[in-house]
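Sorry to interrupt, but I need a hand with the structure work. It will help me judge whether the discrete encoding reads sensibly. Write everything out right here, beneath this request:
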Amino acid sequence: MAKVMIKCPETGKLVFTGVFGDKTLLESMQIKKNKMARCAACGKEHLWQKEEAVLQD
């Protein structure tokens, strides 16, 4: 399983959302906004959408 990553809106760095998955899981997600735990890049909590996410092995 790959890490689901988003770009931190504060720093622009890719950060781990806390979710592991694959393309099928990402495409099938029904939740519009997902909350991630504290961002490793800036320390804030972010809301993210599946359209913003990328997979990283």
